[in-house]
Amino acid sequence: ILNVEQSPQSLHVQEGDSTNFTCSFPSSNFYALHWYRWETAKSPEALFVMTLNGDEKKKGRISATLNTKEGYSYLYIKGSQPEDSATYLCAFVRGSTLGRLYFGRGTQLTVWP
Amino acid sequence: NAGVTQTPKFRVLKTGQSMTLLCAQDMNHEYMYWYRQDPGMGLRLIHYSVGEGTTAKGEVPDGYNVSRLKKQNFLLGLESAAPSQTSVYFCASRSDRDSLSGNTIYFGEGSWLTVV
User: Fold this and answer.
1) Closest-CA residue of chain B to A4
2) How far is B39 from chain A (nearest CA, A)?
3) Per-residue pLDDT reduced to its tens digit, B30-73
4) Using CA atoms in the order A44, A46, A52, A58, what is the torsion angle rounded to 10 degrees?
């Protein structure tokens, strides 16, 4: 069984706070790391796909970094807004099984006005 | 574009009944997946397919069967439904082609299944 761990499991912040969460994955046989945003009653939507060690991606107030050697990725949200409330999922793609994504359980973010 | 379409969206089954969930994608994707989502468990892979005519087991395949007779369709079957299969089911698809932006997974809107 391949473990993809996300922490924290849930997070509550005030509007305007910046926050970050972690995705840990096996450091061997790395191919790609995906981040998804998942709102209740909707389908998950892609935020980033990261493939190179040291990758940094940014979309608006959300950014992500990748360290494949130590097996972790950080997702940052700057100046959180209530509409950022969602579950953030990461998914690991292993080089030997390219068709399959291994999802973490997600970090549930709630941003209070 | 329709993207990934799942039917039905809602269904209530009695224990022991059978049913099939249909997933259709119009993006010519090679890879297709069926996940289930339960509280506190995230997304768990039931079965997946890396191409027409192929299927493979995921993390929680027991009690389910799948078929990929056509590239655009991936069917998930429950032969004898059990209350433990009450869940939200998500179908997804993905291209097998590498690109600078990577190949993200596209999800359907989910199918809510209750087994009583």
Assistant:
1) B42
2) 10
3) 999 999 998 878 889 999 998 999 999 999 999 999 999 999 99
4) -120
